């Protein structure tokens, strides 16, 4: 479900995480025992733990927000907006069950989290990073919703790999399993006209992966999708604004000195995508034997595959 006022996320896969380090918990606002302030990447995040059950320690949840914000700030060269609200709504259980990002009336993310989540539940959760990534992209017309969700789906794992939270094999296992869902069915045309869950989340994510690879190929691996999205961030655009796709692609392409996104949109967004996905995996040196991921380091794009998941 999508509206111009809310990006509600329905993706189902879960990536595992190994936490590295966490920055210190910031003191809560003395006037409200359910309000905390987290600083990250030049931004101030007001975190609310709504209806937190009595006796539930807020610290692990605030650490979780801090870490997710730091992961996103690191990738975007600063948090996507200078001020945001983070609403943690509690339910009686563990893990997370839903999330949304909002841009109208200020930047806000909301995640429903189990009050009995253990540290491991939060360490394994992708949802908060996903919602925070949404804050970096302006709101687009409905037909481009695949890019909204696809970028968040791709970057929720790439940003955490960069932070050292996910290992290389886990990333590519998730991609080789998920990305085929994004290929067009026989009855479908471009991503703009498909409304399937698979094309929205994984079609968009595949678009971002291919863009990342092609930008790196075109620039001798000196630029990447990260430069494109940072270009949007540095242009002062974020989820609080509405825009059409063309100027956004122009800004992003200018940031990499290529026409990769423009060309890829013509091939995949506005018309049916004829992508040789097996060929892409082969060139990247990624294959799966059904359970494990096997890397072929003699593949021509091995250096790009390694760069995509490199810990910075
Ligand atoms: Zn989403």
Structure notes:
The protein is α+β, with helices and mostly antiparallel strands and 312 residues long. It has 2 domains: 2-134, no CATH class; 142-308, no CATH class. It is 41% helix and 16% strand. It has 11 helices and 9 strands. It has helices at 59-76, 119-123, 127-134, 145-162, 168-178, 197-218, 225-234, 245-256, 260-269, 277-284, 302-308, and strands at residues 2-3, 6-9, 35-40, 43-50, 83-91, 96-102, 108-114, 286-288, 293-295. It has a 7-stranded mixed sheet, covered by helices on one side. A two-stranded antiparallel ribbon has the order 8-9. A hairpin with a 4-residue loop joins strand 8 and strand 9 (293-295). The longest helix is centred in the middle third of the chain and has 22 residues, at 197-218. Mean pLDDT is 90; it is low at 12-25. The chain binds zinc ion (ZN). Zinc ion (ZN) binds at residues 7, 9, 130, 134, 149, 152.
The side-by-side strand order for the widest beta sheet comes to 1-2-6-7-5-4-3
Structural class: alpha+beta
Tally of helical runs: 11
Bound ligands, named by name, code or SMILES: zinc ion
Extended strand count: 9
Which stretches of 5+ consecutive residues score pLDDT under 50? 12-25
Compute the average pLDDT. Answer: 90
Helix and strand succession? Answer: EEEEHEEEHHHHHHHHHEEH
Overall 3D shape: globular
């Amino acid at each position: 479900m999508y509206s111009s006022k809310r990006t509600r996320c329905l993706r189902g896969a879960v990536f595992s995480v190994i936490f590295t380090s966490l920055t210190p918990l910031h003191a809560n606002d003395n006037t409200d025992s359910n309000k905390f302030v987290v600083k990250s990447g030049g931004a101030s995040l007001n975190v609310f733990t709504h209806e937190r059950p009595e006796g539930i320690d807020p610290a692990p949840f605030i650490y979780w927000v801090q870490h997710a914000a730091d992961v996103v700030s690191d990738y975007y060269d600063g948090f996507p907006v200078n001020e945001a609200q983070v609403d943690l709504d509690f339910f009686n259980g563990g893990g997370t069950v839903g999330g949304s990002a909002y841009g109208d009336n200020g930047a806000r993310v909301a995640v429903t989290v189990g009050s009995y989540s253990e540290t491991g539940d939060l360490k394994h959760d992708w949802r908060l990073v996903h919602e925070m990534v949404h804050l970096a992209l302006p709101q687009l017309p409905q037909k481009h919703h695949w890019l909204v969700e696809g970028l968040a789906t791709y970057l929720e794992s790439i940003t955490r790999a960069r932070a050292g939270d996910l290992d290389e094999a886990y990333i590519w296992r998730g991609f080789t399993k998920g990305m085929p869902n994004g290929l067009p069915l026989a009855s479908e045309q471009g991503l703009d006209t498909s409304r399937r869950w698979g094309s929205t989340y994984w079609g968009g994510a595949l678009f971002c992966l291919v863009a990342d690879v092609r930008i790196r190929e075109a620039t001798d691996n000196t630029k990447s999708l990260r430069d494109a999205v940072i270009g949007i961030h540095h242009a002062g655009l974020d989820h609080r604004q509405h825009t059409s796709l063309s100027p956004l692609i122009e800004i992003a392409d200018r940031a990499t000195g290529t026409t990769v996104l423009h060309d890829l949109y013509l091939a995949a967004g506005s018309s049916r995508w004829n992508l040789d996905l097996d060929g892409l995996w082969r060139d990247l040196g990624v294959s799966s034997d059904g359970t494990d991921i096997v890397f072929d380091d003699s593949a021509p794009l091995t250096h790009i595959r390694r760069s995509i998941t490199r810990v910075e």
